[in-house]
Amino acid sequence: MRNRLEKPYYCKECCRGFKCEQVFERHKVTHTSRKSHVCEVCCKTFQCESELKRHMISHTDIRPHACNICRKAYKRKQALERHVKNRCRSSPANTSHTLIWRPVPDLM
After folding, report:
1. Which keywords does the record carry (predicted)?
2. Each residue's pLDDT tens digit, 95-108
């Protein structure tokens, strides 16, 4: 078990520890079946408003995360990070990638 001082908020349901009370409170909702945030487009439900906001981008053509080398853009930061890790085909072997982020308009 990890040091309780390092992660003082402890979930009794799954034994995970958290440093931040706010993150811990958000985590506790995952152990309930309450999903009160509903997508108005496809009716999919979410436990957290932040999950719904992230999901809403899937219903748009917005791609706020772009590669600085080839300019290929992605809806999710994780997809761009995977692209960078695998090195885009357009970049020379010694070119370093940086992430470009474009602001997303408020979708809700």
Report:
1. Metal-binding, Nucleus, Repeat, Zinc, Zinc-finger
2. 555 556 666 666 65
